[in-house]
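FORM 12-B: Structure-to-Sequence Request
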C-alpha cells in the first residue's frame, strides 16, 4: 500500500520545500509515501476559472487508478484533531488500498474530481496557501505515524 500527495505546481519557496523534504524523509521509516507534482497549466491566465479547474482535474485524474482511495484536501471536508487523524490513517492502512490525497489548484476541484473522490478532508477552517498546505499535511501524516507508534513527537 502506498500514500501519495498529488499537487498542482512546484513549491516555489525553497525553504518550504526543504521542510517538506525533511518530513518526506522521516515518513520513509513508517509508510511508502510520494509527493507527486502535476505541472502548472501553460497559459492559465488565458483560461477561465472553470476551464482551469476542468483541465487541472483531467490531469489529476490521469494519475489516479480505479482502485485508489481518492481523498481531497478541501475546505468543506471533515476536520480531525491529530489523534483522530491518526486513527483515520490506521483505518486507511487497514483497508489496504493505495491512498491519493489531492491538493487542487487555486480555484479548487472540477466536478469530475469531486465525483471521483472517496472523501474530503479539511486542515482548518482557515485558508492557507497551496505551498503551506503541502507542508502542513505532510507534517500531519508524519505526526499520525508517530502517534500510531506511540513515539514522543506528539504531546496531548
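FORM 12-B RESPONSE
SEQUENCE OUT:
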Amino acid at each position: 500500500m502506498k500514500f501519495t500527495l498529488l499537487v498542482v505546481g512546484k513549491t516555489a519557496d525553497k525553504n518550504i520545500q526543504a521542510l517538506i523534504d525533511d518530513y518526506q524523509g522521516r515518513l520513509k521509516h513508517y509508510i511508502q509515501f510520494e509527493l507527486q507534482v502535476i505541472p502548472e497549466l501553460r497559459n492559465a491566465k488565458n483560461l477561465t476559472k472553470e476551464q482551469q479547474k476542468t483541465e487541472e482535474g483531467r490531469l489529476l485524474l490521469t494519475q489516479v487508478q480505479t482502485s485508489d482511495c481518492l481523498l481531497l484536501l478541501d475546505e468543506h471536508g471533515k476536520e480531525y484533531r491529530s489523534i483522530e487523524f491518526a486513527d483515520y490513517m490506521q483505518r486507511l492502512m487497514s483497508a489496504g488500498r493505495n491512498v491519493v490525497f489531492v491538493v487542487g489548484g487555486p480555484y479548487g476541484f472540477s466536478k469530475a474530481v469531486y465525483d471521483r473522490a472517496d472523501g474530503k478532508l479539511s486542515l482548518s477552517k482557515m485558508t492557507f496557501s497551496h505551498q503551506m498546505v503541502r507542508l502542513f499535511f505532510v507534517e500531519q501524516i508524519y505526526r499520525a505515524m508517530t502517534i500510531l507508534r506511540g513515539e514522543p513527537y506528539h504531546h496531548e
